[in-house]
Amino acid sequence: MAPALMPSPPLVPREGGNNMTVFLFQIVLMIAIFYFILIRPQQKERKRHQQMLQTLSKGDRVMTNGGIIGVIVHATDTELTIRTGENTRLVVDRGHIARKTEDEGARK
After folding, report:
1. What's the domain range around 88?
2. Which DSSP symbol is given to 73?
3. 74 near 58, Cβ under 8 Å?
4. pLDDT given at position 10
5. pLDDT single digits (tens) 39-98
6. Within 10 Å of residue 62's Cβ, how many Cβ atoms?
């Protein structure tokens, strides 16, 4: 009998589940890993930085994003005036403060 005329074998579903389900599970797993490794720590750091900015007050020693170190002599809601030298004062946007550094008294 010619192969073209022979009946085809019945189609039997493969075992092991649906490939699409496995693929979607892998994608969801990758998104969860990215969230917990990259996004969540950044959100925590941003929240901690915002809290630090809100607690800044006169007399705190700070470093700007540009690396300028000074002591806060005047503070408003949006701006800080910092003394960087004997006769030098700079007005800096509160959001451009990188971190709070140790006090002058603690360094000596």
Report:
1. 57-108
2. E
3. yes
4. 67
5. 999 999 999 999 999 999 999 999 999 999 999 999 999 999 999 999 999 999 999 999
6. 22
pLDDT of residue 20: 87
Residue 50 lies in a domain: yes
The residue behind tokens 């910092």 is 82
- Closest among 89, 48, 45 to 68, alpha carbons compared: 89
Given a contact cutoff of 8 angstroms between Cβ atoms, the answer to whether 105 and 64 are in contact is no
- Both 42 and 61 in one domain: the answer is no
Same domain, 43 and 66: no
Cα–Cα distance for residue pair 42/13, rounded to 1 Å: 46
What angle is formed at CA 89 by the lines to CA 88 and CA 90, rounded to 5 degrees? 125
> What CA dihedral angle connects 35, 37, 39 and 42, to 10 degrees?
160
